[in-house]
Every structure is written in C-alpha cells, then in structure tokens.
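Slide 14.
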Amino acid sequence: MTAVRVCSVDDVKPGSARRFDVDGHRIAVVRIGDDFYAIADRCSHEDYSLSEGEVWEEEREIECPKHGSTFSLITGDPQTLPATRPVPVYEVRVDGSDVNVVIPES
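Slide 15: predicted structure.
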C-alpha cells in the first residue's frame, strides 16, 4: 500500500467533502473539524458522486445527493436505503499540512 498526497488540509473546509482522482481511484475526502476521512466517491446504489452530498458531522456519514442514502465515513457501510452495498474507505494520514490517502496496490 502506498500513501499518496491528495491535498493540503486547507483545501477541504470543515464540514465538507471534495473529490480527488488518485491513481485511478475516485475519492471523496471529507473533513469534520480536524479529522479527515476518505471514501470512494461513487454511491453503490447508482454511480453518483458522494462528494456532492451533505456531510453529517455528528453521525460521521455522507449523504448521496441523488437518492438520499447515507454511508459511514468509518466503515463505508450504507446506513439508509436505497443503497445496500458498502463503498470502499481509505486510510488517511495527515502529515503537517499534507493530507495523504493510502491506496491499495492493484
């Protein structure tokens, strides 16, 4: 596995998500306070961008803006229907002002 720099901590505002394309992976980086999460930027119900959805800070979830399914930022598991399959999550490492995401080797 390789940690890849995807952005600076200032590139993602607290309470929001932003999409990054990294080594063929479409990733939504989510910031809640000083915590960062990385989740696949593709709803498992329909191919729709999760980074365009609302971040539910207390629940540590992100909502798909297309049909309203929410996904755990920690496990990737769907929390509400219509989605029933999880989406991948990635380990995040913050090093100074750099946000790095661990990408599994193919």
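Speaker note: The chain has a mean pLDDT of 96.
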